Amino acid sequence: MKKLHPKSTLDELCYPFIYEDSYKCDYEILTDELTRMVGWAIDELGNLRLRYDKSYELKTLETELNWILPLCYHLNGSIRGKLAIEESDHQQLLKIYTRIKTVTKESISSFVLPGGCSPVGILNQCSSLSKKAIRLMVKINNEEAKEVPHILPKFANVLCNYFFAATILINQETGFKEIPFKSKSY
Questions:
Q1: What CA–CA distance (Å, rounded) separates 110 from 179?
Q2: What is the mean pLDDT of the chain?
């Protein structure tokens, strides 16, 4: 079977690598989606802050997400292009994740069902997209023999955890009570 690779004008091509077989393209599309979702979460958080305008934590979260937003695009290009995530970025993300864990330590003690007001659902999706990005990094590294810099999955793992912790923080600030989930499998 002939490979799909239509000859198109620039206006008929959404992305230069869209027809390649490499997982790199899938990774870049996924991290592009992640970046767009973070942008959406920031907007929704701004709307939420209008109702909780005295919340220091929600304002701080908005500042952190605005810092994370361009890093998601840096994560996007750091496999095919020049590595743009630095150890200092990873350390800063760890610092803000640790801060949120400290602030929310009384609010969560087990696995919970997803829920809460927007942008909680969006941030839960960001967490899932971070996991998918890590899985694609594993495939790129192991199946395509393209060495993925170790800082990228380290950063994406913390990013995943940060997004989840951010949902707990929002729920704490808005008074939403998480519903514990008791697994029948584990």
A1: 10
A2: 94
For residue 167, what pLDDT is reported? 97
∠58-180-182 over CA atoms, to 5°?
150
Confidence of residue 129 (pLDDT cuts 50, 70, 90): very high
With CA atoms as reference, report the closest residue to 17 among 26, 25, 5: 25
Q: Which tokens go with 148?
A: 């993925």
Exposure string of 76-114, with b = 16+ CB inside 10 Å and e = fewer, is bebbeeeeebeeebbebbeebbebbeebbeebbeeebeb
Identify whether 180 is preceded by a cis peptide bond (ω within 30 of 0): no
**In sequence order, what DSSP letters do the residues of 145-174 get, joined into one string?**
--PPPTHHHHHHHHHHHHHHHHHHHHHHHH
Q: Return the closest-CA partner of residue 142 out of 127, 153, 131.
A: 153
Residues whose CB falls within 8 Å of the CB of residue 183, separated by 6 or more in sequence, listed in order: 111
Does the pTM surpass 0.85? The reply is: yes
